[in-house]
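re: ur question from yesterday

yeah so i grabbed the chain u mentioned. its 115 aa long if i counted rite. heres the sequnce exactly as i have it in my notes:
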Amino acid sequence: QVQLVESGGGLVQPGGSLRLSCAASAIIDSISVMGWYRQAPGKQRELVALRTRSGVTNYAASVTGRFTISGDNGENTLYLQMNSLKPEDTAVYYCNALYSGSNYWGQGTQVTVSS
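ran it thru and got these structure tokens back, copy pasting raw so excuse formatting
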């Protein structure tokens, strides 16, 4: 089993930056795939970025070039660096882990992009 705890959300102006963190109870490189998803009000949860155990990354088209996913084994933490934020990035952001064949979710952290 893996516990995931997100942090780093908040209110930011358009064009600003935030870094989200996801603290995991397992070593990052022991987890097959980790990722960030988001859900805006009235919309379905969508994939933002993925990182495999081997370090391969994948991004949604809407965030490519602006967001960067990375992992720190020493701190068992997954990060999402978000730059050039737009109002449409406003959502609850969730950390996800695929570990030993099961899917795990964090509780989510709110990101609001507004002037």
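noticed a couple things. The chain has a mean pLDDT of 95. also The first strand starts at residue 4 and ends at 7.
anyway ttyl
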